[in-house]
Specification:
mainly alpha, two-stranded antiparallel ribbon
Length: 190
């Protein structure tokens, strides 16, 4: 008996009252609020996209630096590849929104603006990789110049004071060691 009542719709319950018209001033306020919320969401999306992209680029650079510090010049290609790959991750998400179809002998592409964003993302990933590798090369050049300068200074001092030859080498080695430990401590303090 109860199931029969459920199967047969009651026509009286289906009738709805007409909607009450919203006053004009309220409609305008609602439209302005809707527009304001859309603008806030757009700004939040831009800020989030910026910080996510920046984080991936910084992580790629950090990975490249560590690879180059640990592996030296032999790890150059590994560092460059890892840096580019990690820096390109946020850009690779753009590929999912681009549609390329082959219909009736023609390519049809939708969301073509994403191809421009893809190109910009690839260029920024290359720039991050170049900066990481370039900074390491500058550090290596500076280290080599320092070694050459120290060697020249040692030779000059040895010529001027030949009697202090072994002690001078020990003192210079000690100063370099303590200087390196101090620089290592300052670098890791952050």
């Amino acid at each position: 008996m109860f199931s029969e009542e459920l199967e047969q719709p009651n026509e009286e319950a289906v009738i709805y009252a007409p909607d009450t018209a919203i006053p004009k001033d309220l409609a305008e306020v609602l439209q302005l609020e809707k527009q304001r919320r859309i603008e806030i969401l757009i700004v939040r999306k831009k800020v989030l996209t910026f910080f996510v992209g920046w984080t991936f680029h910084a992580t790629g650079v950090a990975i490249a630096k560590w690879c180059l510090v640990i592996g030296g010049s032999g790890a150059l290609w590994t560092a460059a590849t890892l840096c580019f790959t990690v820096a390109f991750v946020p850009t690779s998400f753009l590929i999912s929104g681009m549609n390329i179809n082959y219909v009736d002998g023609q390519f049809q592409v939708s969301d073509m603006q994403k191809a421009g964003n893809l190109l910009v993302g690839a260029i920024t990933a290359v720039a991050s990789t170049w900066l990481a590798v370039r900074e390491n090369q500058a550090l290596l050049d500076l280290s080599n110049q320092t070694v050459v300068q120290i060697s020249e200074d040692i030779r000059t001092i040895q010529k001027q004071y030949p009697q202090s030859d072994p002690w001078l080498s020990i003192v210079i080695a000690g100063v370099l060691f303590f200087g390196a430990m101090f620089a290592f401590g300052v670098a890791n303090r952050r």
